[in-house]
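User: Is it possible to get a 3D structure for a protein together with its bound compound? The compound here is pyridoxal-5'-phosphate. I've pasted both below.
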Amino acid sequence: MESKKFLLTEADIPTAWYNVQADMPSAPAPMLNPATGAPMTADDLYPLFARECARQELNTTDRWITIPEPVRDMYRIWRPTPLVRARGLEKALGTGAHIYFKNESVSPVGSHKLNSAIAQAYYAKEEGVTNLTTETGAGQWGAALSMAARHFGIDLAVYMVKVSYHQKPYRRSIMQTYGAEVIASPSMSTRAGRKIITDTPNHQGSLGTAISEAVELAMSTPGCKYALGSVLNHVSLHQTVIGLEAERQMEMAGEYPDVVIGCFGGGSNFSGIAFPFLRHNFSGERSTRFIAAEPESCPKLTRGKMRYDYGDEAGYTPLIPMLTLGHAFAPANIHAGGLRYHGAGAVVSKLKADGLIDAVDIAQLETFEAATLFARSEGIIPAPESSHAIAAAIREARRADAEGAAGRVILFNLSGHGLIDMASYDRYYAGDLADYTVPDSQIDAETAGLREV
Ligand SMILES: *Cc1c(COP(=O)(O)O)cnc(C)c1O
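Assistant: Yes, that's possible. Here is the predicted structure of the complex:
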């Protein structure tokens, strides 16, 4: 029998995260302090973020950053995660490609988000923080931070994107089970929320609105810090446990990926699977292709502009040099809530601009078709977000067949399962879902006032 999955033991959980910033051939432009226009320093970031997270954010020198033992100990609840050879999917496709996926859906909250939530809650606790605030789209990050905050004895308030709050009531229940307070965003509880509701009474919320509210609460509450689940460098750093484990597991399988794929919201799971492999491209040993798979309705990597932009709708965050659709961009109400974010992190944006990674945008119906095929062939119902990576992997397998490249090795990250997203699947089966293309004119208009990088 040929192996189906490749398993490591608890002792194999990485002891350090990989900091891609130390190895990039060309560094991204610095984030700017919006008040002064000067490059951000760790001191500028401390009021908002835990001190160690602020340091990691700006660390461009240490290639390896030790994972604190209490964090590693919590990872042991579900890590290492399995690497699986998707033989069922290969058979269903009739492909000669070898398809592997790293299964991050086995975490207690069902996604990769816990990898960073635990680290961020730990660092907050270490410096005596009593309260955290955050935003959540589909509820995955909120669920992860709720669990992590509870573990370290921190109170958490979560601003949840309004459309998801109503579409995904069970994620709210999960957060409440862990003891978090959950508020639908935009809300009347912050200045930023009140302004958005006054300007657009039917605003369905976006990660941008929710971030604005969470940041405002953190800045105005003593002993309170903010935690972000994607986009920033320290979040991507924590996610590199995914790729570091996968690297060893691919070795166990006796293969090395020709193509590495992750779905793309703000970039954390893509970075997590990609960066450890990317370091071998930097050193010239390998020439792996990296593909970030984003929604057609929110195409920041494939069609966004390289600009200094805010990470949030109200303009509270530092100015990030990013591929962006504009911080006021309100994406269509697609079901991959975690991918409805207007920009890409600075590092991924730079890598894309320098041609070191690729991106594809994928229409919603194609992702659900891929998800259904995956569920029926592999048995796991994927998160709508992860389905973008599956759809991209299927495209790559078909391309390999068309090119006669039998044995091409494709690795994707299964960022989460979809068992709490079945309402989205129902709507797909009912024929209620549509594709949304963003007109060029909208992207031009939304990015018009932003400074070029
Ligand atoms: C949040 C989320 C994403 C998107 O976020 P990234 O930071 O781009 O990884 C993707 N998949 C799942 C399951 C998520 O919860």
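The two ends are 54 Å apart (CA to CA). The chain is about 40% helix and 15% strand.
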